[in-house]
Amino acid sequence: MTDIIIDIIDLKKIYKVKNVEYVALRGVNLKVKKGEFLVIAGPSGSGKTTLLDLMGLLDSPTSGKIIIDGHDVTYFDEDERATFRRKYIGFVFQSYNLITYLTVLENVELALAAAGVPVWKRREKAEEILSLIPGMLELKNKRPNELSGGQQQRVAIARALANDPKILLADEPTANLDSKTGEAIVELMKKLNDEKEVTIVMATHDPDMMKYADRIVYIRDGSIEKEVIQNE
Predict the structure, then answer these.
(1) Which of 40, 58, 66, 188 is most buried by its number of CB atoms within 10 A?
(2) Residue 214, Cβ density class (10 Å: 0-12 exposed, 13-18 middle, ≥19 buried)
(3) What pLDDT score was predicted for residue 96?
(4) Which UniProt keywords apply (predicted)?
């Protein structure tokens, strides 16, 4: 049984904009271990988000391979990708992406509905997930516009955990937060990584958020420059 949960092999992504080619990834090779907290670091435009989108099956590569938990998912069609995402992957974005007219509880319940959890079980499961995150259960009847940025991001993390994912992908999750709140969010993710053994891949350019990682992979101009192993 391999301990590699994500295996990226010679991954390339080329976008075409008005007949002009833009190379976003240039043959990236990367292995992520089960239970690892990996940071992908680099400046804007380096390819961090593209790599995360491909890992999360939100986009397809131009060439190369993506193997997740032993499944070659490289050229899944849209239905296959959606089914696989629901089973394996949770997402946290910098913009929270909460539905503003729903309560905190309803936002989490919606993710459970998408995962096929029956109606009678959704509320109980949503409350159970919110109780994992300090201070969230008592805010369950609030709407996103009544919450601070940090609280909204915590709801987004709760929603991402709704389908008990093996992998949590976080794209600049602290970018819209002050440093203290950002640190609290990454500490929460590290706690989930330690206690629930969720594999976390986080893209960031903030050095203060990198100290929680087991390993940092630095990417620039679509290529991996170096990696640093820490917290061993």
Answers:
(1) 40
(2) middle
(3) 85
(4) ATP-binding, Nucleotide-binding, Transport
The full set of domain ranges for the chain reads 4-229
Could you say which architecture CATH assigns to the domain 4-229? 3-Layer(aba) Sandwich (3.40)
Tens digits of residue pLDDT in 203-212: 998 888 899 9
| DSSP secondary structure letters along the chain | --SEEEEEEEEEEEEEETTEEEEEEEEEEEEEETT-EEEEE--TTSSHHHHHHHHTTSS--SEEEEEETTEE-TT--HHHHHHHHHHHEEEEETT----TTS-HHHHHHHHHHHTT--HHHHHHHHHHHHHTSTT-GGGTT--GGGS-HHHHHHHHHHHHTTT--SEEEEESTTTTS-HHHHHHHHHHHHHHHHHH--EEEEEE--GGGGGG-SEEEEEETTEEEEEEE---
pLDDT of residue 1: 43
What distance in Å separates the CA atoms of residue 135 and residue 141, rounded to the nearest whole number? 13
**Mean pLDDT value of segment 151-163:** 91
